[in-house]
Amino acid sequence: MAPDRIALYSYAHVTWVAKQQRGFERKHLPDAATKARIMLAAIRRFLDEDYRFIGLDHFARPGDELSRAVVDRTLRRNFMGHTTQAGVDLIGFGPSAISQLSRSYAQSIRDLDGWQAAVADRGLSTLRGHRLSEDDLERRWIIERLICHGELRAGEFEARFGNSFATRYASELEGLGPAVEDGLVEASADGSLRVTPLGRLLVRNLAMVFDRYLADQRESGKPLFSRTV
Length: 229
Hints:
By secondary structure, the protein is of the alpha+beta class. It has helices spanning 32-48, 65-72, 112-122, 134-149, 154-161, 165-168, 170-175, 177-181, 203-208, 214-220, and strands spanning 5-7, 52-55, 58-60, 76-78, 81-83, 98-100, 104-108, 126-131, 151-152, 185-187, 193-195.
């Protein structure tokens, strides 16, 4: 078939969201090591077929706009995956759809009947939303740079936000210490970061260090996300 672009997603076992998955027990699913081997096999196969590993779960032909965006550092990430459409609003339509606006997020009602009733009643089916703070905007920028470009340039952060990256995120950089020791990421004195080839396989874990909400979510004991591997 030779498509220009491939998105290879890992199966997310989230029974607290998708109740229909409860027929699959974790013991029947591959463990993290097996899933990593499957992903490595896919990467090797796609590279042999002249695809470029864009990152995370995306592959593209050299002439595809995603490949060009990697070279000129314009690659972006939204809820649907990697994209070249920077600075545009993403409007989600349908049950559970998530909309990403410049300074906010909104999710629609999840079940079909509830979604239809809300649309018929008020035209919108918004279940919940989040308005981004200045701190949220900074952290979104940081996480996107790591995931999309595999690097964060401290000078670019300072030019955009007017703060010293190394000073403002000293605790997060300290938290990356074990990843630096494991050869997953390289850190410079000014706080600039570069994800290594090995680190690209675990870039979600590296980016999670900058997620301010993650610690509270873990302490709550309530599952929310699928596994990173």
